[in-house]
């Protein structure tokens, strides 16, 4: 085992796994891995959630970053109602979702259908959603309405641990740097086009940000949207970003795969995680509807 792995990763994981977690009183939370992901039961999302129970759902999300509710029979209105408990609903720039949703198009939903005629699937690379926005999505709620008989998991990575596991000298280099996140970088590969008269958003965010709810630092660059680090030369920026992208992708100890079942809703912290839709079910189909939440704030160093 290398010194890098032995020293930094073990220390970061140990700190995460030994952190004190209070018991829950109104919900049951079963963790899916030691470092990220949980399953919540004891909640009926088709009904208004009591304040005390919602507070515990928020705490479970803060602690586990991605949580799934299974066996939920919910409508699109139910999904939006839960999203509104977290903040203002996001409106996505991708006009392609209008075609997918057809007559049911709602600008506060992002919908897609992946099947045997698809050239790609949404989210098939490590990323947080729309980090290119000035106020990126803070929380997302995904309802997969058609699942393949096998496969189609969503993988998640813990960006607190991605930062914590770096060496102290490298953290000193990254702290204070900013990077450009460009929507064209993320969506041109899908053949997507912005609305007529508009351009895809591009924003500058800190490479290392501090989470407003937990006060913890997390890594905020990703291979899908981040183009370069502002304060570095292009070769320096490419070298640093490629190292960080690889760091996120290869560290299985920071990741989990969430398996979809019918009538499940997935809720995740879009700032402190990255996710990857696993397209291993071709030629079967997978359909989904996502509602997301913005707070009007952007990641801060």
TrEMBL record:
MF-aspect GO terms: metal ion binding; taurine dioxygenase activity
SUPFAM superfamilies, per the entry: Clavaminate synthase-like
GO biological process terms on file: sulfur compound metabolic process
Pfam families recorded: TauD (PF02668)
Domain TauD/TfdA-like: start-end pairs: 29-290
GO cellular component, one term: cytoplasm
Keywords in alphabetical order: Dioxygenase, Iron, Metal-binding, Oxidoreductase
Family: Belongs to the TfdA dioxygenase family.
Protein's name in the database: Taurine dioxygenase
């Amino acid at each position: 085992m290398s010194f890098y792995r032995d020293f930094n990763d073990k220390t970061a994981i140990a700190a995460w796994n030994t952190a004190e977690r209070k018991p829950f009183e109104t919900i049951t939370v079963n963790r899916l891995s030691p470092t990220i992901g949980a399953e919540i039961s004891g909640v009926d999302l088709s009904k208004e959630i009591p304040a005390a129970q919602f507070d515990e759902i928020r705490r479970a999300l803060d602690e586990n970053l991605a949580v799934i509710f299974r066996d939920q029979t919910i409508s699109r209105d139910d999904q939006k109602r839960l999203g509104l408990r977290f903040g203002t609903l996001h409106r996505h720039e991708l006009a392609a979702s209008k075609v997918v949703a057809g007559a049911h198009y709602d600008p506060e939903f992002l919908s897609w259908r992946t099947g045997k005629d698809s050239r790609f699937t949404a989210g098939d690379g490590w990323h947080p959603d729309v980090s290119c926005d000035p106020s990126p999505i803070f929380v997302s709620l995904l309802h997969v309405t058609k699942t393949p008989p096998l496969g189609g998991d969503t993988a998640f990575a813990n960006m607190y641990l991605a930062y914590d596991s770096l060496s102290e000298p490298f953290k000193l280099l990254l702290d204070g740097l900013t990077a450009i996140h460009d929507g064209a970088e993320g969506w041109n590969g899908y053949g997507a086009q912005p609305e007529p008269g508009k351009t895809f958003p591009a924003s500058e965010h800190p490479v290392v940000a501090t989470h407003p709810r937990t006060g913890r630092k997390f890594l905020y660059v990703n291979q899908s949207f981040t183009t370069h680090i502002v304060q570095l030369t292009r070769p320096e920026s490419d070298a640093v970003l490629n190292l960080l992208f690889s760091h996120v992708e290869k560290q299985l100890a920071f990741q989990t795969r969430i398996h979809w079942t019918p009538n499940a809703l997935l809720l995740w912290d879009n700032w402190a995680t990255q996710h990857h839709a696993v397209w291993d079910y071709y030629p079967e189909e997978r359909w989904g509807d996502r509602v997301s939440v913005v707070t009007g704030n952007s990641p801060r160093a």
